[in-house]
Amino acid sequence: MSNQTTFSQALLNPEQPCPDGLRSWNGSDPAQRFAIYRNNVTRSLIDALADTFPVVAELVGADFFNLLAHSYIQHSPPTSRLLVEYGETFADFIQGFAPAASVPYLADVARLEFARVRAYHSADITALTPVAIAEVIGQPEHLANMTFALHPSVQIVHSRFAHVSIWAAHQGTHDLAAVDSQCAETALILRNRLIVEVMAIQPADAAFISALQQGQPFAKAAELAMDVVAEFNLSPPLAHLINTAVIVGYAYPGASLGNNHV
Amino acid sequence: MPNAHLTDVSLRAPAKVRGLPNRAGIGLKSQHVAEIIETLPELGFFEVHAENYMVAGGPFHHFLQQIRQHYPLSIHGVGLSIGGVDPLDTAHLQRLQILLERYQPESFSEHLAWSSHGQNYFNDLLPVAYDAATLDRVCAHVDQVQSLLKRQILLENPSTYVEFADSSLTEPQFISAIIQRTGCGLLLDVNNVYVSATNHNWDAQQYIDALPLHAVREIHLAGFSEDLDSLGSRLLIDAHGSAVDQAVWTLYADVLQRLGPVPTLIERDDDVPALQHLLAEADIAEQHLQHAAAARKQACR
Q: Which of A37, A99, A191, A247 is deepest in the core (most CB within 10 A)?
């Protein structure tokens, strides 16, 4: 076993003894010196999680967040060298973390925050211009069978709780006291050019956008939305996707794949 | 001439682009980006952590591209784990290659340390034993990186809190051997020298004297935090959360006296202050550099 194996095990598990073979110039306790590494690793990873999940951290306070993050780090230490990818399973961990049970919406706020980080760093793909989209949609003979490609930043996060309103309250745009956490909400997260936007949308709008994202033809996507709410109106969600510059391509049977006309 | 040794050192890994200017630079922090683009402060270069930019798109790339148009750039990696017993992560190397192709930085540097083992990434720079087996491994890794990237890389001396009983070489001997065998350059972190020298009761001046100073291509300066070991001796931590200490400035001035001006970075990763504070620290380094350049000119007359 290499000394890096024992060193690694002792870094992640505070119950493991300090590795053998370490020394100090004056005979001072190597375990105390080794603890600096252990502390650096833990502290830097807690900070990384706090960067990705700032509202989760605010909701529970620094002490509880340290405990939560530390437990997560021991349970699921990073496997990627890219810290922006760390925390993908944090929401699931929160859901099973008994001391957090009194904050039932915490896991969904974490899901929303992780989706924001993903959106922030997602690929740069030029959107179709509103004029180009108007032309495309103005081909009624093709529209029903047309599929649309959405920007990779587009994500939908459902919750049984008011995770969007709770998150928004921590951006200073909502009053947290006025939020009824028990109202179910659906979040649409996307990056509009350089800015990540989060908004609460209707479940039928979410069904429409999800269907488009999965490559369902336009008519089928509208039909699936009408299964949710019979009087579904596709204009508002469609206008939102156009205005936020997240429709990046289209295709219809018999046509070569349309893209962003760059 | 500052480049007198370049041909010897870079034979096996020729640099594709010119090096950093012999001026002061600062680490690029996301909270300063908008102000930098708006005001374009007078500065020698910016340095970024490679891993922060290994993302598909978004604001990080958008702003770095703009800043790149106005300043020389150093890319500094923390994730390669060159000192690790595991083989280098080829997917990570590939990401790095793409990043360097995209930004064509004047310099790429990494650490004499390991940061991953098996499946785990630790996000910290962990120490290696200075023995023959480790030397072979580190040199093989540096060779691999340089031949893939087709450029000379710089390796940074570490700050450490423990020593290994198995070490058979001193740290400067170990670093000298890597540089001699691989032709890589040295990123001399003067704060790390001071921290490690204090933590292990080395003489910082002798440590620096024993390094292959001709290979120094960049200097790092940063702040440390202070603790005590179990016997009450000073134990310094490379925290990057405060201003450069006076003792480190003194050591820096001494290094410049011997080397002449060298590209110098003010590093700050924690408790990041307003941009003005970092620019003011860079200005102190700039004054040292101008002084060193003037002294060099004087000596050549």
A: A191
